[in-house]
Amino acid sequence: MFYHLQHRWRLEEKTLVYYGMRKMPYLFKNRIRLQNKQLRIVSSLPRDLSDQDMAMIKNMIDQGIVVTEDQLKRMPLSLDDAQFCQTCAANDYTIPGLEFNCEGLCPMCETKDDTDHLKSVLPVKNRFEHQKHRRFDVALFYTGGKDSTFLLNELANHQQLRVLAMTWEIPYMSESALESIRSAKKVFKNVEFVSRKLNQKDLEAIYQTLYDLEGNTCACPSVAYVLFYPDLVSEDVPYFVLGNEPVQMKNLYYNHVAPKMAFDPKVHRALLVGINLLRCLTLRRPLRQGQVHALFAMRELAGGRNLIKRLSGYENTLVEHVKTALRSAPNLLKPFKKAIRRSAFTGRVPAFVHVDFNDVSKTGRYVWSEIKEMIKEEAGWIEPKMSSKGLHTSCDIESCKEHTQYVNFLNMTSTMIPFSALEIALASSTMNLSREEAIQETKKHLGLTIDQRTGCLLMDELIKEIKRHDGQ
């Protein structure tokens, strides 16, 4: 009987690599190192296998990695042709190679109870104290999108904090996001708004490098850190607050970017104790929770090597590509690196913390439709023209990033599952929106398709947009 290597598996040197999402108990077992005899058999597929050959690769046959022709899967040609999870919007078109268990559940729904407690790779802090001897209580990045507007409203309105709201002006900010920023400036009297943009030469250099590496120009929010970290240090801002869509954090886990232990507060505390022991030995001020995370993140962005990530195998290809792109604008990095050294020496480091949107929402769940209505009323938020869109509402070419991530994964040139494919599925699983709403948003607004007509601009068109923006 003829045996084949199953769809989405590929032999790379002596390792079998799966470009997909496996069902339990093999969720993160996407790499299988082969013995020489196994390598000889697998590299010769498809062909008939003897009993001795089958015994040698029995575990691969049992797992459905090596299969007969009638067991070969095929790639759906459209979303309408896809197999969907029974309870969420996950499907094997937007997530090529997605496997389902015998009950028709995707791995995210199958492991839902096991990951409910995973909130953030940063320390979670939902309430903040007023600072007597500082100008600001907290700072955040403000894009004018749904999530950043919700966070700004929570901190400035509900908690009455003095907020530094920082905006990196990119050429592709949606008109609704720009209108929302203008509206927020009128609504919030206890917020200081600061916006910056890169000079055209640096912006083109960074975008060109990213486009060559990723096929898109998405550098948010990495460049914003480079632009604003010196201000956070000089102003001695105690907290820099992130408030991502809750499912964005779980995406890091399911995309094999961050291990489960990275979400554990006990691990955070142990890391802090260890770092502070070293700082005390070198006569430097001990750090608070969140400051260690800030220094680690900024040093890595500045071009440093994160030894912990490298040893654990949890490296982020996107971060590596952004680091490469930033090196194409060396003058931009000089004040950034200086601020990192200064803050590490003095201990004046903004603590990077995370507000859990589910925890601070009135109902205990960050339901998109309810949140939109609240921030319209309280923060003057302007909804995008595509009113049904809820995921990533501040950028006009978000679908370009989604499409290129999708194509890179589909063509097996990247092991990174498209972020939006996971996030929209997780959002429907946790009822941030309904399964039907998630499927409709995927069809209408997301670039998760093999169709190239996704609003994805070519590089020369991107440069024209940059120049147009620079002249305004």
How would you portray this structure in words?
- The model has no long low-confidence stretch (mean pLDDT 91).
- By secondary structure, this protein is mostly helical.
- It is built from 21 helices and eleven strands.
- The longest helix is centred in the middle third of the chain and has 17 residues, at 265-281.
- It is globular.
Q: What order do the helices and strands come in, and which of them pair?
A:
Blueprint: E1 2-5, E2 9-12, E3 15-18, E4 31-33, H1 36-43, E5 47-48, H2 51-56, H3 58-62, E6 66-68, H4 107-110, H5 112-115, E7 138-141, H6 146-158, E8 163-168, H7 175-187, E9 191-196, H8 200-214, H9 222-234, E10 239-242, H10 246-254, H11 265-281, H12 291-301, H13 307-312, H14 317-326, H15 330-346, E11 351-354, H16 357-360, H17 368-379, H18 398-410, H19 419-429, H20 435-444, H21 459-470
Parallel strand pairs: 7-8, 8-9, 10-11
Antiparallel strand pairs: 1-5, 1-6, 2-3, 3-4
Please outline what is shown here.
The chain has 21 helices and 11 strands. The chain is mainly α and 472 residues long.
